[in-house]
Amino acid sequence: MDILQQSYTYGSSPLTSTSKSVSHNALLFGANISKSLSPLLHGILFKSKNAIWRYGKVQTTDQAEFKARLTANDTIGTSITMPNKVTFGKALDHLTEEAHVIGAVNTSFVRVAPNGRRLYIGTNTDCVGIREAISHRHPSAKSATDGRAAMVIGGGGAARSAVYALWKWFGPSEIYIVNRLESEVEDIVKHFTVAIPSIKLRHIKSIDTAQQMPAPYIIIGTIPDSTPTEPGEVLCARICDIFLRKSEKGLLVDMCYMPSPQTHLIMTAQGQGWNTIVGTEVLVRVCVAQQILWVEEEPNEKGVQHALAAIGEKTKTKLAKL
Fold first, then answer.
1. One domain, residues 110 and 8
2. Is 80 contained in some domain?
3. Is residue 262 part of a domain?
4. Which of 4, 82, 292, 322 is deepest in the core (most CB within 10 A)?
5. In Å, what is the CA distance from 246 to each residue of 58, 97, 122, 232, 240?
6. Which residues span the domain enclosing 259?
7. How does pLDDT run across 5-48, given as a tens digit for each residue?
8. Which residues form the Shikimate dehydrogenase substrate binding N-terminal domain (predicted)?
């Protein structure tokens, strides 16, 4: 079931035939969002669907403020980013399977109950963004992954979305996890073995193990693009390098795109012969998934391509100023 049809299991549409010509707001809630690229992307995507809606930023971690803005009549949906992805989910009426299993919410949308009450539904479109970025750039990725492992670098919320996306839609034989902190990996393994009993996760925590294991086909990076300094960071980088240098190559996705989508991980993978997808492509696909739930229409491909081009130019300009 696609995400739009799934959304109607929670209620009917709040939109009317004139809704796109009436002012509505979608809002981003987070702690450090002044440099977010989401307003640029959503502005382009709304325009491509002829919706005169606005996308604004609300820099807060206050759940009461979130609830008040969420339930305003002119709010059509929200984006939720760090550190609110767990706490703000508690203010919503229902959570989708993705949000439940991943344990984090990054998107809310509105549906209407049979009695006319507005319902606020939380979901996770980070995982959908990963799936769509891979599927659009490499349609054969699912069949190529069959029988091979995948790998996630990191231990935070984005890593959990990556684990879910890989296991749900690409069918790897198992998923390796590489991270600087062993405790974070232990939490991920504990969480997913309860949420998805059939999942197969393997913590790669030594050079010897990395050398012995076959190369994964898909690797998803979810960590900042910074020079490793702490022992755990150095070890994590060395393990990743071992996998990238193996003779079997595949596809690497790096969700990090600041200060540039051309991260050290992306450039290393390209130098070793891997196909790559940069983080800005994933971000655009996340925004497209949110738009589908808010506007309730499939994306305008021309608008998607405009968004991809615009974010490419934006990140080039920012990098040139550094």
1. yes
2. yes
3. yes
4. 292
5. 45, 36, 40, 22, 10
6. 128-277
7. 999 999 999 999 999 999 999 999 999 899 899 999 999 999 99
8. 28-107
